[in-house]
Structures are given as C-alpha cells and as structure tokens.
Amino acid sequence: MKWIRRVCFGGMCLLMLAKSADAADPDRVLLLHSFGPDFSPWNTITPPFREALRKLAPNPIDLYEASLQAERFGKSPAREEGPFIDYLNALMPDRKPRLIVAMGAPVTRFVLRNRARLFPSSPLLIATSDVRTYEDLALTANDTACPTIYDPTVHIDHLLRLLPDTDHIVVAMTGASATEQFWNDLFQRALQRSSRRVTLEWFTHLAADDMVKRVAALPAHSAIFYPTIRVDGRGVPQEGDALLLRFIEEDRAPIFTHTDSLFGHGIVGGPMFSSHEMADACAKVAVRLLNGETPGDIKIVPVGLAAPRYDWRQLQKWGIKDSLLPPGSEIFFREPTVWERYSWQIALTLAVILAQTGLISAMLSERRRRQLAEVQSRQRMAELARVMRFSTAGELTALIAHEINQPLGAILTNAETAQAILKSPSPDIAELNEIVVDILRDDRRANEVIRRMRSLLTKAPFELKSLDLNEVARETIEFLSAIGRQVGLVSVITPDALPIIGDRIQLQQVILNLVANGIDAMKDTSTENRIVSMRTSRVEKFAELSVSDLGSGIPEDKLKEVFEPFFTSKAEGMGMGLSIARTIIEAHNGQIWAENQARGGAVFHIRLPLATLPD
Ligand code: ADP
Predict the structure, then answer these.
(1) Is the CB of 552 under 6 A from ligand 1?
(2) Looking at residue 456, what is its pLDDT?
(3) CA geometry: angle at 183 spanning 178 and 187, to 5°?
C-alpha cells in the first residue's frame, strides 16, 4: 500500500505544481496597432477594449503592445517588414502569445501577409477592420475577426435628411496612406450618386492647415463629413482628433463623423460607430479565444453603425428639427429648461407670491369690509346723532317755547297798544313807528330761534370740511344765547386760529350736549351760580375746547363710565348723549374726557388734531 500512497502523493504534488504554474503564468496578449496607439478611431476603441478584456478574461492579462509605425509614412509603407517581424518575435523569445489582436486594417494586412512567421499557432483576432480592407488576403484556421461593415452613403443621405438645404458637403479624408487611399476610392465610388444632388468637396490632397482654411471659408448651406484623417495630403501624420477639433473650432458648418470619438464635443451626431460597442464586441471574442475556442469555429459577426445619437446643442445651433431625426434616435446633452433647472426655487417663489397675493387680497377685502362697515357705522351714527338732536331739542323745548313766547307776547302787547293808539282821534305817528320797529325786532328774534332750531335738526350726511373750532364754538354760543337766558354762559375764545377737519353740525351737537348736561347738573345750584363756561385753546398740535359748570360734578369712579351707552343718572335720561359725543369725536380722530374741578362742578374736554399748524 506504500506505493499507492507514494503515487497519490506524487500526483497531488504534480497537480499543485500545475496549479501554481497556471497562477503564475498570465495570458500573454499581443496587441498590434496600425499607426500608433493614439490614432483615430483606435485611440478611443483601445482603452475600453483593454478594460473589457481584463475584466472578462479568465486569467490575468499580460499585454504586449506594438505599433506598425511604417503605415503612417504615406502610401508606400516600407516593404521590408522583416525587422518588425523579428522585433515581435524577439519580444517573446521563448513564449508565444496566447492571443494576437490586430487593431485596424493596416496591421491586419501586415499580419495576414506574414502569418506564417508571426506565431502561427497563436490565435489571431482581427479587430475593428472593415471586412473589405482584408478580403483579398486568406485567413488561416487559427484566425477570426470582429470586423466592421458599413455603407458610406448612409452618412450623406442622413446628412441631407437633417439639413435638406445643404448644397455643399466636404468629405474630410485624404488618400495619403494605403488604407486611406482604399477608403478614398471606396467613398468616391459610393458617393457618386450623391454628387448629383450636392457638390462634394474632397480634401484628398490638402495639407492639414489648408483644410482648416477651407473649412473657415465654407459658404452657407455647407456641411462637413469627417470619416478620419490619419495622414494629411502632405504625408504628415495626424494623431488623435486634433484636426477634427480645429474644424469644430472654426464653427462654420455642421460636422458629422463616422465614429463617436468626439460626440459631445461639437459634432452633430447621427448613425456612428460606437467605440464602446466595438471594444466590447472584440473583447468578447478575445475572451472566447482565451477560453480555448477554436478561432475557425467562431462565427464572424460584423459590427454595424450604432443607433443614431444626437447632441441637442448642435441640433439647436444648426436649426435641425427633432421631427427630422430618424426613428429610434436618442438626444443627449439637452440643456435643462429654466423650470427643470430651478423647479423648486420657482415653485417656492410662486408659492410665496400666491400666498402673498392671497394675503393681500384677503387684506384688501378685509379693508373693503372695514371701510363699508365704517361708512355704515358713520351713517348710523349720523342718524343716531340726529335722533339725539331731537332729544336735545326736546329737552330744550321749554326754553325754546319761552324764547318764542316772549317775543310773541311782546308783539301782541305792541300790536294791542298800536290798535289803541290808532283808535284815538289824533294818533301819535312817531310812537306807532316805534311800536312797529319793536314788533319787527321781536319777530326777527322769534324767527332766529326757529331758524337755528331747524339747522340743528337738519338731516345732513356726515361730511368732513375745513373748519375753525372757534367758529363752531361761536355759532353754538349764539344758538344757545338765542334760545335761553336762564343760565349764564361765559366763553373765552382763543385769538389763535384752530383749523380742523370736521363735520360742523355734529361738532355743534357735541358742544350743545355738553352745555345741556352742564345746565342739568346745575338744577340745584343757586341762580347766580348757574354758569356754564366754554373755553377754546391750542395745545401743541391740537385744538381744545372745554365746557365746565358749577354743578354737582361726577363721582370719581364714574368719570369714564359716563361715556358708556345708556349710562344716566337722570330720571328721564337716555344715557346716549356722551356716548354719541365720544363716537363723533373719535370719528374726528380726537379725544373726549371728563374731570371734576377743584372749585366744584365738572369739566369736559374735547381735543381735535389741528389741520395745519398756524404760523
Ligand atoms: P343723559 O344726559 O341722558 O343722562 P349723557 O350721556 O349725556 O346722558 O350723560 C350721562 C350721565 O353723565 C348723566 O346722566 C350724568 O350722570 C353724567 N353727566 C354728564 N354731564 C355731567 C355734568 N356736567 N355734571 C355731572 N354729571 C354729568
């Protein structure tokens, strides 16, 4: 049994060794470039290819890269390919690559020409070359491809579909290298049909600078189709996309390309080869080869143009309508609308504006409601005030009756006297004349009482006018003098003008009410002390009027209460006079208050704002 153990142990060791050798030995891949690693379109295909290969490969990748620089030296590449073959063999002296990848047509043709001397037992992957570029060369059973195929007329037809007014198209390609010559011929043949519709300008023999000058001078309704330029008309290699970028900078005409390397950097877009799609397709085939599939068994599926893609900014710039784009198009780089960019800020602002509008309209309607209510309350106040005037008039009826009766009595006596004189045989004309004068005076006096009573009771709307408070006071005193003499009325009117804005009748009513209250308060006062004093003055920015009496005064705790509606201490009182007075004064933006005097009796003050300050 010992030998079995020994065999098993030996086998395990061998397995372990094989395993550790596998782990230490990554898959060697030889990546061959046509011009150099930085030529279009491979400069945008190779990086994603490397990445995808490393990601998908079963083992770590040991990548060797070499460029067939010879192709860039014009139409006749060095026929002496031997040293380059030796160099590649020298690159891997004792180990052959697990896979050779030929990137682009020039290097593909080189490898196929020299396949027998270039690791013939290693599988070859022809990547991203159009099938037409190598169809004259035979593939071995160890070769496969992930090629491209397309029809150049697609681009011109597409361009004219988007920009139907175009009458001049630059085909930016040269014939300066062998491959470019191949493509130039192919394009010229393919686009013959298009040249009947538009003028095609070929850059076949132009130096890079001359191409840029031509682009700068392009007439209106021109467009540029840029397949790729690797070597210019003078044989100068053009690395990367530098020349295309110079065309873009000129900004003279819309530019269309056949690969998407500068998509998003100033080209319009359309159906293009996608660098990533090509890189992925080739990486997948490469991985199958690394996994041991026989190259000859892998079905060759050419990669075509990707679904059309457009740069929205370019569509806007050249006035290309979305409706003209082919079905299945995708638009990129669409600039967000102001709404998309600032949606929440706009929404917030709108919300604030709406809220403000709502608030303002609510405030306005509230203001309107208040104004209406104010007007209504003023009307009611005016009506109530009128009722109160009637009431005051009622209270004054006895005085009025007395005042009217007196002149009427005098008139009667005088008339009877005149009658008696007239009956005498020789009437005294002079005396009769005096009697008539007396009758007329008494009549006027009675009339005056009635006139003033009427004016007090007129139904007038609340009306603010420029007044002098002194005038209002004087008129009220005159009225009171006309209707009654039972109470002494003392008035001290300031010589200063007291201009105010107010309603004459209502202010008169307030003063009258204060005087009437003063008279009431002095019912029990001795006749000689029944004096109501009225005084006007200017206090700072106010016109002031006070009415005082020598009556009973007001209990201290009632000084404010007397202005409340229905507060009365009188048997027949209504308790509305002072309440209405306060409403009237407040409607004039003024103040009214009561005090007791040290010498006895009450004093009522009214303060109204002066309209303009006297000089
Ligand atoms: P009314 O005269 O119908 O009672 P007012 O509102 O004019 O209604 O007056 C309310 C009350 O204020 C009076 O009943 C009285 O008690 C008191 N009052 C008003 N003026 C005076 C005054 N000059 N002296 C004393 N009390 C007064």
Answers:
(1) yes
(2) 65
(3) 150
pLDDT of residue 287: 96
Of 96, 90, 101, the residue nearest 28 (C-alpha): 96
The sign of the dihedral angle between the CA atoms of 98, 102, 107, 110 is positive
Three-state SS string over 521-579 comes to HCCCCCHHHCEEEEEEEEECCEEEEEEECCCCCCCHHHCCHHHCCCCCCCCCCCCCHHH
Q: Is the pLDDT of residue 577 over 90?
A: no
**Which residue's CA is the closest to the ligand 1 atom numbered 8?**
575
Q: Are 607 and 542 in contact (CB under 8 A)?
A: yes
In tens, the pLDDT along 194-245 reads 777 899 999 999 999 999 999 999 999 999 999 989 889 888 888 888 999 9
Parse the chain into domains and list their residue ranges. 23-148, 153-272+305-332, 342-371, 396-459, 460-615
Answer whether CATH 3.40.50.1970 is correct for domain 23-148: no
Q: Which CATH superfamily is domain 153-272+305-332 in?
A: Response regulator (3.40.50.2300)
Mutating to test ligand 1, I would choose from 517, 520, 569, 584 the residue with most ligand atoms within 8 A of its C-beta, which is 517
Q: What is the Å distance from ligand 1's center to 519 Cα?
A: 10
Q: How far apart are CA 282 and CA 477, in angstroms?
A: 117
Torsion angle in degrees (nearest 10) through CA of 592, 596, 602, 604: -10
Q: How far is CA 200 from the centre of its chain?
A: 49
Q: pLDDT for 322-337, tens place per residue?
A: 999 999 999 999 888 8
